[in-house]
Amino acid sequence: MSPVPFTVAIDGPAAAGKGTISRAIAAHFGFAHLDTGLLYRAVGACVMDGADPIEAAQSLQPDALEDGRLRTAEVAQAASRVAVIPEVRAALLDFQRDFARRPGGAVLDGRDICTVIYPQAEAQLFVTASAEVRAERRWKELSAKGGGRTLEQVLEDVRVRDARDSERDTAPMKPAAGARVIDTSDMTIDEAVTAAVSHVEACRSARQL
Question: Which CATH architecture has domain 7-195?
Fold first, then answer.
């Protein structure tokens, strides 16, 4: 008998810590992990190379997620722009939903996993932090890679992307009604991971009752 599926859905803005938390949960429980933002980043990278966004989404191949540019600020902005296109989101929907029901458990993080992609997820989290804290985290990350952007520029990028993601007509970023909100502004990584793991544990226990 195949292991029973169990889905952990994690939403939240950029640089809030949801990727770190998602990977930690996946490792703790032995679940598969998908950073759904990479799908949009991969499409964004294709568009930067001259491709049509809808055609890029419809023909996206798994190896596109290995593109070394996907973590750059430029691709992040391109991803946010293509993510507002309904046809792009529709093209990537089935891939994400199939992944969510992998036997043995799955963790998906993004911006609309709880609200649109898989609202039936057994455990739902919304990981957030203040724009200033997230900008500083992203700036340090970019600086370590030799990026030349100032903290003020990165903060502006964060605010622009937050506005675009939360105000778009299709699948705007917002906490799901049943999601546990974790604000990591004043938390250490260990504290945030512990809070998230505890919530998932509680959801698993409730399901087994």
Answer: 3-Layer(aba) Sandwich (3.40)
